[in-house]
TrEMBL record:
InterPro entries: NTF2-like_dom_sf, SnoaL-like
SUPFAM superfamilies per UniProt: NTF2-like
Pfam families: SnoaL_4
Identification of the protein by name: SnoaL-like domain-containing protein
Length: 53
């Protein structure tokens, strides 16, 4: 059972990393293409991003 639990944890970790990577790629692609909709998809609906005055 311990091997099954360890494998499940590894799969969950890999899935989380891939989700983070996907979010970063959407952010970068949105910046590169000046695509506001794609850029917004990298944030939570109520997220904010301030870049100075």
């Amino acid at each position: 059972m311990a091997d099954t639990d360890r494998l499940a944890r590894q799969v969950a970790d890999l899935m989380a990393r891939e989700a983070i990577r996907d979010c970063l790629f959407r952010y970068c692609r949105g910046i590169d293409r000046a695509d506001e909709a794609m850029l917004r998809s990298a944030y939570w609906p109520d997220g904010t991003d301030h870049h100075g005055p």
